[in-house]
Specification:
The protein has two domains: 47 residues, no CATH class; 41 residues, no CATH class. It has 94 residues and is mainly alpha-helical. The chain contains three helices and three strands; from the N terminus they run αααβββ.
């Protein structure tokens, strides 16, 4: 049963690592593998990792191109994009 104990301990690190990774916009499965293969280290890595949740987006009112909220000039049509109307912003699909 020693092997089972090791698997259990590894998963007890891997599962929270995966959950944190997913909460930060990453892949649950990827972080599950990292956290399981590198117990402790993987958990630390995901806690320290950059939050990868996407920036909010909006639509250019002139050419309808989807651009990030921080973009001030539309890269397609060159239109100045000022503070957006809240109805024009949306979060990208996760
Ligand atoms: Zn545009």
């Amino acid at each position: 049963m020693g092997g089972m104990a090791i698997v259990f301990i590894a998963l007890s690190f891997g599962i929270p690592t995966g959950l944190i990774g997913r909460a930060k916009g990453g892949s649950f499965l990827l972080w599950l593998v990292i956290g399981t293969c590198l117990p402790g280290f993987g958990l630390l890595a995901v806690i320290l990792s950059r939050n990868e949740i996407n920036e909010p987006e909006r639509q250019c009112p002139n050419c309808n191109k989807i651009v990030k909220l921080y973009v001030q000039v539309c890269p397609r049509c060159g239109m100045d994009l000022y503070l957006p109307d809240p109805s024009e912003t949306r979060m990208p699909p996760q």
